[in-house]
Amino acid sequence: MEKKKFKIVESKKTRYILPNILTIAGVCLGISSIKFSLDLNFNMAVIFITLAAILDALDGRIARLIKGTSDFGKELDSLTDFVSFGIAPAFIIYFWKLNNYGKLGWAITLIYSVCCVLRLARFNLTKFKSEESWKQNYFEGVPSPIGALLILSPLVLELTEFNILISSNYFVPVFTLTIALLLISKIPTYSFKKIKIKPALTVFILLGIGISLVTLMFFTFETLLIFSLFYILSIPMACFTYLNKKKSFQIDNSEDEHEDIL
């Protein structure tokens, strides 16, 4: 008789573990950032949200790379995204500045969290037709991890050594509401899911990633602020390229229909 080998997890299921571990680690970071904001330690609160966003970017890509995607992982990712990017950053901004506005500040906090959960629900239901695969390079509205980093950018600006004077009394509430509306908007933004990289550019991209990581380690808040600025500037560009691709797609479809008729 052959002896059965003892296995803690079946081999065909082991590939599902790593992405889910990264997702759970992300939600732990998000919840911990709330604790730091309660202690008024906003430096660590922002850093933990940033780490949660990095893990969120990695878990899905790793799951697809090792073919470890699952319905459970998808639902877990959405729930943790709401905690880490819908609740945690809103609390950080509230304890930093919005609590000075009383009921209005709390209302703005709630509005942002509600917009985030609506955005995540819409994302889960978004499906593309096979002939519209080009749309996978775009999100509808700003993704929740980016939205979290964006609403924290006024706080990040205060933590940097940049001498830029902004009237936070009026800017923070308006800016938070603006980002909340961008979350649920139909404005196309880059997702870079199906981006194709030429082999000749691989070295330069890796170099750029390496430099970004170094600057993030030594100039954390300055790097986050510059990243937020570049992302905001990329939104009009994403709208332009999206409309061009949509127009060319419609032209190609109309030509195919005419060919079928003939």
* Cα shape: globular
Given this structure, which CATH class is correct? Answer: Mainly Alpha
Indicate the CATH architecture: Up-down Bundle
Q: What name does CATH use for the topology?
A: Four Helix Bundle (Hemerythrin (Met), subunit A)
Q: How would you state the average pLDDT, rounded?
A: 83
Number of helices: 9
The named CATH superfamily: CDP-alcohol phosphotransferase transmembrane (TM) domain
Q: Strands of the largest sheet, in order across it?
A: 1-2
In terms of topology, how is this protein built?
Elements: H1 17-38, H2 42-65, H3 71-96, H4 103-125, E1 138-140, H5 144-151, H6 153-159, H7 168-184, E2 188-190, H8 202-218, H9 220-261
Antiparallel strand pairs: 1-2
How would you concisely characterize the structure shown here?
The chain is an all-alpha fold and about 260 residues long. The protein has nine helices and two strands. The protein has one domain: Four Helix Bundle (Hemerythrin (Met), subunit A) (Up-down Bundle), CATH 1.20.120.
Q: Please, could you describe this protein's structure?
A:
The longest helix has 42 residues, at 220-261. α2 (42-65) packs antiparallel against α3, α2 (42-65) packs antiparallel against α5 (144-151) and α5 (144-151) packs antiparallel against α7 (168-184). The chain has helices at residues 17-38, 42-65, 71-96, 103-125, 144-151, 153-159, 168-184, 202-218, 220-261; strands at residues 138-140, 188-190. The model has no long low-confidence stretch (mean pLDDT 83). Helices cover 71% and strands 2% of the residues. It has a single domain, classed as CDP-alcohol phosphotransferase transmembrane (TM) domain (Four Helix Bundle (Hemerythrin (Met), subunit A)), CATH 1.20.120. By secondary structure, the protein is an all-alpha fold. The protein is built from nine helices and two strands, in the order ααααβαααβαα.
